[in-house]
Amino acid sequence: MPELPEVETTRRGVLPWTEGQRVLAVDIREPRLRWPIPDDLPQRLCGQHITAVERRAKYLLFHTAAGSLLVHLGMSGSLRVIRDNSPLLRHDHVQITLASGDRLRYNDPRRFGCMLWLAPGECHPLLSGLGPEPLSEAFSGELLHARARGRRGAVKPFLMDGKVVVGVGNIYANEALFLAGIRPDRPAGKISLARYQRLTVHVKQVLTSAITQGGTTLRDFVGGDGKPGYFAQQLAVYGRGGRPCTRCARPLQEVRLGQRSTVYCVACQR
Ligand code: ZN
Description:
The protein is an alpha+beta fold and 270 residues long. It has two domains: 115 residues, Alpha-Beta Barrel (N-terminal domain of MutM-like DNA repair proteins), CATH 3.20.190; 124 residues, Helicase, Ruva Protein, domain 3. The chain contains six helices and ten strands. β3 and β4 form a beta hairpin. α1 crosses α6 and α5 packs across α6. The protein is elongated. Zinc ion (ZN) binds next to loops. Zinc ion binds next to loops.
């Protein structure tokens, strides 16, 4: 599933080919995504210049003077830029043709993504009530500590709550808690400010490192021969349950927490 680093990498991958471009045509081949693509999307988008490509949480926003195209990649979606005559692939649900002749294609086998239209200045319900971006200054140990007061629930689901901070998916929550030495099932309200400060440093670090790694895949976003390869990463705990801890060599524990796979070290995380 595309996580925040993959969505940011997608933004950076398609940006040079889309920003400043005028939309010539919008071809909707399959409107039935998580929510139906609005019928009037082609009418609204055609003729508009894409003034900026922004990311908020895991949403991409293609801004124009007439409004913004909101895209979510769902579980299996991808966007890529086609610069030649590559044929459409199965699951290429939307094609946006630009004045340059390049085309932006949205592919989504499972169709859990979405493509919606926002009027200028409209804050869509999907975007309202979201917490700060994890790589912004607003995301700090102080913020987590303040938001956690009185919370008895475990810290890991708290960290993955988009109302607290956006874009900390399961993989990154596992990794950051390991690096910060915090047990995923510790009650959020019982963690000190100093430990939350350490945790925010590690959240920023794991996300930044994944985005940097994604930078090496940017050229995969251009070309018709398949979808962008979302990048494999060096992970310390996620997917390594039962294998030795990279710090102390004891076997890592794997449990379900909030229905999500959770891996941690009983010795290194407290
Ligand atoms: Zn350990």
